[in-house]
Design goal:
This is Insertion element IS402-like domain-containing protein. InterPro entries: IS402-like_dom. It comes from Streptomyces luteireticuli. By secondary structure, the protein is mainly alpha-helical. The relative contact order is 0.15. It has one domain. The protein contains 3 helices and no strands.
Length: about 90
Amino acid sequence: MLVDVGERPAYPSDLSDGAWELIRPVITAWKARHPSVSGHEGQYAMREIVNAILYRARTRCQWRYLSPRPGAEERGVLLLRQMARRRHRRNHP
């Protein structure tokens, strides 16, 4: 079961439904091009991961304080690191 935004209070930094509809196709396409090696689909909805990244960027809190659920912050950090590595490889072949 995916953990979704409806299961917690909304934060001011959360994506609006309209903003999510704008970026959802980009995230969905990215996920289709980068499937999990293990085949694991993940526990957290992509919208929640984006919300965690936005919250972190807005508040500058430490990743470990993002969620009382273990794993959410690690997934956000992992995704950011993967994107940064890919960008670096593209720019520095």
